[in-house]
Amino acid sequence: MTLHPLAQLRAAAGLSHPAYARLVAETHAALGLGDMAARREKVSRWESGRTIPEHSAQLAMAHIHHVPATEVCRLGWPHWLYLASRDAGLLSAPHTGEGAALVLDSTLHLADAPRSPSLLLEGRALAEQVRGALVRLAEAADAAVLDAAGPLTERLDWAQARIEALEEHENGTLLPLDALYTAALSEHRHLVTLITTPPGGLPVSGLLYHLAARTSMLCAWLSSAAGEETRAERHVLAALRAAAASGSRPLTSAALTRLALRHLLAGSPSDALMLLRAARAADPRPAPGTDVQFHGHRALALAHLADRAASRQALDYASRAVTRGATTAEMAARHHAVAVNRALVSLHLGRLKTARRQFGPLTEHLTTPQSCPPSPYTAQWLRYAVETHLALGEVDVAVHATHRALDLAGALPEGLALQFRQVLGSRQHEPLVRQALDRLRDPRG
């Protein structure tokens, strides 16, 4: 279970619940906000999300953690708490080149420990970030120069070649996700260093921001495929900043589209739809790959909102975009993505038997050796099949799909293994499920 940001700050300060309650009460009085009961139960309720602190209590906590009172009002609870953590740049950095550099730098040391999804930005705070990115894009787009020039030309040419090689793995790969993430993060670190400490004090080019946005996107989708949605969101927020600073409309649209998926998986479908509208505003005629993702994500958001007809229509649009401008590998990856989205739409609309019919052949196809290597998302997609079969009481089929995922991956990344354990946990009294859980804990089993 993910710690509430207040719990993280309290733990980092080394304070118990009673000690933190006393500190807040003392600060409340010292600021002239009046007397306040110092009860540990209050802190527990705040950290559990059951209650929201009164505004004056939030002002006392903001004072303790050196967060301006204006940010408490601007961001609201609990978003302003992140300003006291390493996520501060993602919330407060200006929408400039310097702000993009700060945000990119903040993603070089994200936590690796697996945890349940916890989104940094939602609702009003998310909308504000998106507006800022679109304004920055409009300012930068007309003057965007994305060609390598000057003393960094050869270095950036090779960086671009390495990035393209890494991007090819999104269509299919036999390499472990952890190894790919390490390679992508290494490339990302190289580019961020060139942005934050440019050689010879040279101005930072739009191409550098463009390449850093692409490495951020690489780190985001690899994190998501590994079940690390919290880390994925931070990377894609950095990608959005860098893409807007580069002036690239297609890349900004792609970042917004991928950010929408984070909110479909761990947030609100309304936020996802807002992000998709912003993606269309950034680039009304996106690249075919982005277009497939756009309509697929829109179908899922509409299914969450029980709009069956509009969801089906979005799936049809996604299907029509599959073959446009695609290599064989890209076409196969897009076909699989649309098929998975079609099954997920059925699942979200409560049509479990239809979802089962759609997931069944898909599971077999995804785990049968093909001419192209499997999508890095395959294990993640199989988790949805497991969820569907469990909802129908088909424990043996769900367990079979779990073993297929493990056979395919060799060993699941810790974040993804945690997600499988959470899905299977409600049936852990079943012998077959216990065997699958044991294998998730020890892949040698």
Automatic annotation (TrEMBL):
InterPro entries hit by this protein: TPR-like_helical_dom_sf
Protein's name in the database: Transcriptional regulator
Organism in which the protein naturally occurs: Streptomyces katrae
Origin organism lineage: Bacteria, Bacillati, Actinomycetota, Actinomycetes, Kitasatosporales
